[in-house]
Design goal:
The chain has about 325 residues and is α/β, with parallel strands linked by helices.
């Protein structure tokens, strides 16, 4: 009988899922189903089972051949228990999702958050030769994860480590105030580097007279739609879009300098939708610029070998499947 390990990546919109076999090879293709997280965890469990069945069907396999599941959720959690609501329904909070799903499906389950899962996925896809890996992903918010040399995931004593979006940066709005983050605090890097921040910055910029003739300033579309189009404009070299993304990249690099000073990962991987854009090379240069402004020289180049970069920056390679792959590999490691 074959032995499979599933990775189930629960997002606010979709559930992405993959299988790996006992050798660590991906079995079949990624399956994506609609997420029902705002309808409660039981509705989501039904979707997870549907995804699992769709993974197994093309292989002619059954659930009895699944020996372990890695599950990630878009919320803070510890030991299988959700600590914060985030974009979930209220009944997730305080519930041991890991154990309830394991009991329902009859398979051992390991659970972490989505940033940790993607970090493990990116580490696994790079195979050998990677020391530590710090992962950050600008999206609706700013998630992250840290994989230790050797492949162990660092989650902290309570599973709450690497909330990278909520470290403080000293950048002010035009009125001299720190911007308010979605978490409620002021000055978080996520208040500058996220989709929500992008919308806020676009509103601020379009209110300035210098952009009054810009196509987005003349548009009647809601700001959400305008912000979505910013990537398209940046790829064409548009001045407004370039200015907004350049500032975002610079601030992200500045914040990463403090994280690198703490963890010294050697490799920083940036994920999220920007990894697929046509201006990603310029964005990475902006990140490096912010990093070099804040980082000590030794974190940029080795004093022994000046040609050697002590901190490398790369784009994520796992795409939409990184978190699901990471959890499948974790399940294989734990339950294989």
């Amino acid at each position: 009988m074959a032995r499979y390990f599933a990775g189930l990546d629960v997002g606010g919109t979709t559930v992405k899922s993959v299988l790996v076999d006992e050798k660590g090879e991906v079995a079949g293709s990624m399956v994506e189903v609609r997420s029902h997280v705002k309808e409660g965890y039981e509705a989501t469990f039904a979707q997870l089972e549907s995804a699992l069945d769709q993974l197994l069907a093309p292989l002619g396999a059954s659930r009895s051949e699944v020996r372990g599941i890695g599950l990630d959720v878009p919320a803070p959690s510890s030991h299988g228990v959700i600590w914060g609501q985030a974009n979930l329904a209220k009944n997730w909070v305080g519930c041991n999702i890991r154990d309830r799903f394991s009991e329902r499906i009859g398979v051992p389950v390991h659970m972490t958050n989505d940033g940790n899962a993607a970090a493990v996925g990116e580490y696994s896809l790079r195979h050998k030769g990677v020391g530590g890996l710090l992962f950050v992903a600008p999206g609706t918010g700013l998630g992250g994860g840290f994989v230790l040399p050797g492949g162990g995931l660092y989650e902290g004593a309570n599973g709450l480590a690497l909330e990278v979006g909520h470290i403080s940066v000293p950048f002010l709005e035009e009125d001299g105030e720190l911007p308010t983050c979605a978490c409620g605090w002021k000055g978080c890097v996520e208040a500058w580097v996220s989709l929500v921040a992008l919308r806020r910055r676009l509103r601020v910029e379009l209110a300035k007279s210098k952009w009054e003739d810009h196509e987005l300033a003349r548009s009647e579309s809601p700001v959400e739609e305008k912000a979505f189009r910013l990537r398209e404009f940046a790829e064409k070299g548009d001045a407004l879009a370039t200015e907004i993304f350049q500032r975002q990249g610079h601030i992200l690099g500045y914040a990463l300098a403090d994280l690198v000073r703490v963890f010294d990962p050697g490799l920083v991987v940036i994920g999220g939708g920007l990894a697929e854009t046509g201006f990603r090379d310029r964005y990475l240069d902006w990140v490096r610029g912010g990093f070099q402004e804040r980082a000590w020289p030794m974190y940029v180049h080795s004093p022994i070998d000046p040609e050697k970069a002590t901190t490398r920056f790369e784009w994520a390679v796992g795409g939409d499947s990184a978190a699901a792959l990471g959890m499948a590999f974790v399940a294989r490691e734990l339950f294989g």
